[in-house]
Write a structure and sequence with these properties.
It is globular and about 70 Å long. It has 9 helices and 11 strands. Helix 1 packs across helix 2 and helix 1 packs across helix 3. It has 2 domains: about 80 residues, Winged helix-like DNA-binding domain superfamily/Winged helix DNA-binding domain (Arc Repressor Mutant, subunit A); about 200 residues, D-Maltodextrin-Binding Protein, domain 2 (3-Layer(aba) Sandwich), CATH 3.40.190.290. The protein has about 290 residues and is of the alpha/beta class. The protein is about 40% helix and about 20% strand. The strands form 3 sheets. Strands 3, 4, 5, 6, 9, 10 and 11 form a 7-stranded mixed β-sheet that branches. Strands 1-2 form a two-stranded antiparallel ribbon. The longest helix is centred in the first third of the chain and has 23 residues.
């Protein structure tokens, strides 16, 4: 008799691959770490090949595991689409999400993938703008929900802080822009809280600096850093491979924490918006921190 794959095991397997941890995957699929481990042992027995291998204290996918991941995602997607086709109560329609581009690369893949698996009939429109513009869009009813930064006033505008992480100095791991005098900087526009914190910290140390690049675009700022042209500041989750974090031992002041908030449109609330908000909160709770050069 042919072996039948267990979709519940495949969901746990995909959660491990996407979260990078058996423990975090357990939170995603609402199981204990030991239960997830048992599922993976049984899945390996069904496949007949190892799908994980040890890498120090971490587990990573084997070549067979990488092959299985693609099939697992397709099987789960097809299962969910099939059930949705016969479920008259399944959510459908369009929801509009805003986020600064600082977080688009890091947050959106996890958020959109999780949401699409649970709500395959929903269209998500994504707008990437700075926080101040996103707040204007919410007030104008051009967005349903937005992830925002620089949110000291988030409580006053009907939002909630959903993640808190350190703001860090970053430079290229292959260049020495952080050793130059005056220090070249790549930062946001003058109203950016991160820019103000960076300049204030350097002024407090009496360290000479010059603004070399200024942009709302995190991609443009990151490009200047990666090219070794300037130093910048980024929240921990926005770090990229090839960046080096600078600390007080490198002569850089400690920076404040960044609070990431979630704000809904004040005009209306729908089950569709509620569902997207739940997925955003869950995704950011399970977001792992990227590994960067020290």
């Amino acid at each position: 008799m042919a072996t039948v794959l267990d979709l519940d095991q495949l969901r746990s397997f995909v959660a491990i691959a996407e979260s990078g941890s058996f423990t975090r995957a357990g939170d995603v699929v609402h199981k204990t770490q030991s239960a997830v481990s048992m599922q993976m042992r049984r899945l390996e027995e069904r496949i007949g090949k190892p799908i994980f291998e040890r890498d120090g204290r971490q587990s990573r996918l084997t070549e067979e595991g990488e092959r299985l991941l693609n099939y697992a995602r397709r099987l789960i997607k097809l299962n969910d689409e099939t059930l949705a086709a016969f479920n008259d109560t399944e959510l459908s329609g369009r929801v509009r999400l805003g986020t600064p581009d600082d977080y688009a690369d890091r947050f959106l893949p996890e958020i959109l993938a999780r949401f699409a698996r649970s709500n395959p009939r929903v269209e998500v429109t994504v707008v990437c703008e700075p926080t101040l513009m996103l707040l204007d869009c919410l007030r104008a009813n051009d967005l349903d929900v937005a992830i925002i930064t620089n949110c000291a006033a988030v409580g006053r505008i009907g939002g909630a802080v959903i993640r808190r992480e350190p703001l860090l100095w970053v430079t290229s791991a292959r260049h020495c822009a952080h050793e130059e005098t005056p220090l070249p900087l790549a930062l946001g526009r003058p109203t950016c809280d991160w820019r103000q914190a960076a300049v204030s910290g350097l002024d407090g140390l009496g360290r000479q600096h010059r603004l070399l690049y200024s942009s709302w675009s995190s991609a443009a700022v990151g490009a200047a850093v990666m090219a070794g042209l300037a130093v910048s500041v980024l929240p921990e989750s926005a770090l990229r491979p090839g960046m080096r974090v600078l600390s007080e031992t490198d002569g850089f002041p400690r920076l404040p924490f960044v609070e990431i908030g979630l704000v809904r449109s004040p005009h209306h609330a729908t089950p569709l918006v509620d569902a997207l908000v739940d997925h955003i909160v869950s995704s950011l709770d399970n977001l792992s921190v990227p590994i960067v050069a020290e």
